[in-house]
């Protein structure tokens, strides 16, 4: 089936089997391999992408369900030049070790802070409890997201 | 030694992060090759039995399915050798790379299906018609120990190996001891569970007769040699390439059946083959770990001085002895007493085979379990003898003046495998830990009911025997672009290897760190390498890089002096330039044409260096739900020398949280038929961001290691080691008024609830109970002699 | 863990969707997919055809009036969280939904999906049963209403016919002044609970309990009201003694499964704890 959607601002067209999930479509068809697969049954959150402004598990969405939507992946949260404030905060706080869960952490944190730049530690922990990490023990990740809030608050100012 | 350091000791931000943060990591699942086929594996649905028939025709009939490989296509099916402790007798229990008839665990590989897509390959697996005959399963180590149903009939036994650890004369010590306490304890089966499941991409070049495998980790050189032998190739014809690796923790990177099957498949069909393990598969295919139970006893003087420990420990090894499967039982026997002075010790550890996924090492293998058993015994003794938990540890920690301190003599092995705690002041770190935690203040909370929850505190001490030998290699070269290329045989599993090695090289060469490029793990880089395990990368890899950098420094000085004049000693390296006293200089790029390169090796004669530390915790127990909240957790360790405090801290926090997962929630549960009930991440529970938000870690450099030029001790595994025992003791102390006996892990809500299900006993003081109470749910069988 | 192959349709009308289901006994409905996709990945479900409701209009509204709250089947957890009217219009619903699963799941998971999937530990079925809500189902035979208490018949089992699609959940009007509580317990935040309770009651003129509704999830094979507990509470004054009695009664009344996460005895005790804590909390605050 043919599917049309916007990926990181660029229109794309793919032709996929109905059973292909969005994560595989992004990784294998569109070669955006930043989105990772840690479980394929909707628990680990490594596959999180942003669809029409909402963070979702791309292994729990069929590619064909993405028709007409606007999708942002971890690649779309990066620039070629400097690291973004969120990325800078992650690096500063050593919020990643093996890097496998990191894309999901970044997309989820970005979606959260874009909506709630004043989220407190409890809220951040609650939201990120849907993203599993085996390396860091989470504390540096929470610190990084707290640190990044300042940049999102500035964006919000009219 | 290194002079003023710009990088070593600094929290240098990681080089690796730049690609990971942009989603530009290169994990094996991110790689594709033209003409690539996808592999899926048919795995045994039963725990014990035989293959009566297999019909792959329905699979091959599916459009897109290209081939099905079974034992028949392989011919002489090789078995996986042991990488560590290949003791006589173990050859009877090695795993064939594919089932040849007999099936011994749910998940054992039976066939490989190759297809145009992973989905099609999975369709193929589902279509294969498998006819099996079931045999009664050896569902646990007790059944195994009766040796009635045997996994390997010709061997006549299910006992894979027995290890004994001995110090002094335990029998005499126990005979005369004024206080003895015996208990049974159990640690559950659990697993490393890295976030990236495994994967391999194999390419066979039939013209060159070369095999190339991507997705290697941990011990690529050993695996290369093993694979080459299995394929009938010279090692030089096989390349194992390490890409980015999503965590290892001891489990990823050992040689598994797939490490043969996927390369074999690529050669068999003449096309690249990629296999990506899915999570359900992972839970039955990747090494299990930790399952051990014991009946052990402690003997003490009335003042709490430990006279001896002895007992029997049983390890549930699973269906085969894996490449490093004997490390856990070995360490349980040899290092049972941890950092404590136990002058008389006799531990017999039996590793028994069962129809479960085989087990291997997982962060702090054997040590986590030993610490749980040992710390529980010590705590029970402290309570019985009326001693404060901290004082009990203080009295029994190995003292600085006793270094080096020899641990138990191990059989099999003898003197040749003796190990000793090399250096340090264990008591000093204990005091620091207690002070930071405000132990004396917190003691008043012990066992109290506050706002509906029972509070408990506990302390534990640990050692981590790190830096396993024998050696590691490095090569350093000046590149034409002026950078320094550092090749090291260590493997990266997410621990920040690239950055740490770069720090060492940069400081030794007086070079900005962004001029250093680190290449690691892949076999083409070096003649030999040993990899990442037993917290050895900084100790051995770092030392090799250090030695290499020193040699390169001399060569650069010599080459610069030759060109600029004057003695080499007058040449200084500053900011990537070699400079004379009077300020004339050459850049590294200028000098690269001279072909400056160095090969270095660092050996440590297999002598471990011991990191040590203490940990304390404060918990609150809600008996209404069985939930335990960790209100505070602090670990303090002396790592000898800190290269990167940022990454070191990360290892500590990450290790503690893994340990807490094991203490409270992780559990690989099998039913009586050998079926794994916890088959997905919905049932195998690991900690999330909400579970343990209050963990602190402090690293000290009190006593550098005497056995390597950097003075570093390993730092990857220490903090996980005491967590199980610490949590059990904290919960036990919180529920002391119930006579709670947390003798089994995990401390699930249901288990904790049950400990409090009886009404509180009035006025149970700190002194010894008249009647020992055991955990009704568990194997507890305590006896106290007064 | 790739699903077995299936066809896919995203019809533009409800009628088409129903007809597609009716024409193929192996067809299944997909909306948010948060419950269905894992089943497909594990190949526990192998439908021939997925009928996606994403284009069907009229299923995603939250309507609030004197008859109560009507939630369209495609209303997502996130929509309920974002609708501030529900703070007063149905605080029990809002509080409960805030605890469903995880952030990402709440952006896709739907009312209809949760009801159709009927996990015994799912929160919305628990609320539906406790509040005596009504489901609207549309099939080839037409439209029918089913009481929530009659809809769930066992674990993952409902009275929905193969060709029927849930279109709406209607919760009765929630008067102000009600006392209520929702409590659930899972070892980790966001997991399916080991047990959960939802309760509310009003008060008569003297302040005695009236119209008590007490529901339980996770400790039975389907969400249930605890009629004995309700009968115990009605007409009496809430005090510590009654709370304890209610807790003990609830522990006796439930018939929990024994599974790898918890033995039955534990779940009974857990229900008692949750009832006790829920009642104590309800006694202390009432809705605006």
Task: Sum this structure up briefly.
Chain B has about 775 residues and is of the alpha+beta class. Chain C has helices at about 15-25, 35-40, 75-80, 85-90, 90-95, 105, 110-115, 125-130, 150, 225-235, 240-255, 265-285; strands at about 5-10, 25-30, 50, 60-65, 70, 135-140, 140-145, 150-155, 155-160, 165-170, 180-185, 195-205, 210-215, 225.
Structural features, described:
The complex is a heterotrimer of chains A (158), B (786) and C (288). Chain A has helices spanning 22-29, 85-92, 102-115, 121-128, 139-156, and strands at 2-7, 10-15, 48-51, 54-57, 70-72. With 158 residues, chain A is of the alpha+beta class. Chain A has two domains: 2-77, Beta-grasp domain (Ubiquitin-like (UB roll)); 85-156, Orthogonal Bundle (DNA polymerase, domain 1). Chain B is an alpha+beta fold and 786 residues long. Chain B has three domains: 17-25 and 468-603, 2-Layer Sandwich (Aldehyde Oxidoreductase, domain 4), CATH 3.30.365.10; 31-135 and 197-245 and 252-285, Alpha-Beta Complex (Aldehyde Oxidoreductase, domain 3), CATH 3.90.1170; 288-467 and 608-785, Aldehyde oxidase/xanthine dehydrogenase, molybdopterin binding domain (Aldehyde Oxidoreductase, domain 4, 2-Layer Sandwich), CATH 3.30.365. In chain B, strand 26 (572-574) and strand 27 (577-579) form a beta hairpin. In chain B, helix 11 packs parallel to helix 19 (723-734) and helix 15 packs parallel to helix 16 (537-564). In chain B, 62% of the residues are buried. The model of chain C has no long low-confidence stretch (mean pLDDT 96). Chain C has a five-stranded antiparallel β-sheet with strand order 4-5-10-6-7. In chain C, strands 11-12-13-14 form a four-stranded antiparallel β-sheet, sandwiched between helices. In chain C, strands 1-3-2 form a three-stranded parallel β-sheet, covered by helices on one side. In chain C, helix 11 packs antiparallel against helix 12. Chain C folds into three domains: 7-49; 62-172, 2-Layer Sandwich (Uridine Diphospho-n-acetylenolpyruvylglucosamine Reductase, domain 3), CATH 3.30.465.10; 183-283, Enolase-like, domain 1. In chain C, strand 2 (27-30), helix 2 (36-41) and strand 3 (49-52) form a beta-alpha-beta unit. With 288 residues, chain C is of the alpha+beta class. At the A-B interface, helix 2, helix 3, helix 4 and helix 5 of A face helix 1 and helix 18 of B.
